[in-house]
Write a structure and sequence with these properties.
Na+/H+ antiporter like fold, 82% helix
């Protein structure tokens, strides 16, 4: 139990350090930009390449894993879309973004450090498979809905091409793909290179958590609390319940996979949803407030899940 408490405190502690640093604003804006760039575009990709390169992939039924997580995720998107469309009277493009906020979790900046700290890099590989498809699946259909509504004169082929081009620029996905290719083709991992990269991987994940805290510190939660609470309820509570029920009672998956799927579903709303709201100039205040509230609530929900699963 002591190790569990220390793990939870360390993960949220790094986020809190970044959050407080940003809130008291003791550093210039240029520092935050440089730090965030280095954490997400240099340190994290190096950690992902290193870990994917040297691990052995688990022998699991991939489609059960995918369906157990993305099935309820898409259902939550549809429910969020319906609530915002029918009850909140949002436009179609705004409703698509609302649905994304309800189902898209912080799988990289928050999820990877958390799952690694609990299970270690080797046992975390099923989770990394989910991360690999996470952005590709949810971003693709969300973009198609928004672009289809706003640009009705464009063909879906053009919109799909633009979506794929955008995803190809994601440095996190690129890092994972490089590591997978090096692993798949059995390319040796030089000892000298390991001695350089392994220390970087230990620094990378705390650095990413601090960066996440800085990002949260720049968001405002003073307005649109009611809509944000709806999103948090869908993301932090309903999504993990559905994922747990499907993985346990429909596919009867092993305990560790049920834990990974449930934890992945219970992660707080991802900060990348804010970039979607900024890009499309839609629901910025609601999305930003939800990210902060969802992250705060996740301290209690994720801690409870870890205790219930006896990790």
């Amino acid at each position: 139990m002591t190790i569990l408490i220390l793990t939870i405190i360390s993960v949220f502690g790094y986020i809190l350090i970044g959050f407080i640093t940003k809130k008291i604003n003791i550093l210039p804006d240029s520092f935050y930009k440089i730090y965030n760039f280095a954490a997400f575009n240099i340190l994290l990709p190096i950690a992902l390449i290193t870990n994917f390169w040297k691990i052995k992939f688990p022998d699991i039924i991939i489609h059960h894993l995918i369906i157990s997580f993305f099935g309820p995720g898409i259902l939550i998107f549809i429910l969020g879309f319906y609530i915002s469309k029918k009850l909140l009277k949002f436009k179609t493009d705004d409703s698509a973004l609302f649905g994304l906020g309800a189902c898209f979790g912080n799988s990289v900046a928050f999820g990877i450090p958390l799952i690694y700290s609990i299970l270690g890099p080797v046992n975390s590989m099923p989770y990394m498979i989910l991360v690999l498809f996470h952005g590709f699946i949810h971003f693709s259909y969300t973009t198609l809905i928004i672009e289809g509504y706003r640009n009705r004169n464009y063909s879906y082929l053009i919109m799909l091409t633009k979506t794929l081009a955008s995803l190809s620029k994601n440095i996190v996905l690129i890092g994972m793909f490089i590591g997978i290719l090096l692993n798949y083709f059995l390319i040796p991992f030089p000892t000298t290179l390991q001695s350089i990269l392994l220390p970087i991987t230990k620094v990378a994940l705390p650095a990413v958590l601090i960066s996440l805290g800085m990002t949260l510190g720049s968001f405002n939660i003073a307005t649109n609390i009611s809509s944000s609470l709806i999103l948090t309820g869908l993301k932090n509570f309903l999504f993990p319940v559905l994922a747990f029920l499907i993985s346990k009672y429909i596919f009867a998956m092993p305990k560790e996979l049920i834990f990974i799927i449930t934890m992945a579903a219970a992660l707080p709303s991802g900060s990348q949803t804010f970039y979607f709201s900024y890009r499309y100039n839609s629901l910025q205040q609601i999305i930003s407030a939800n990210i902060v509230i969802s992250t705060i609530v996740s301290f209690f929900t994720l801690s409870s899940l870890i205790i219930l699963f006896n990790y």
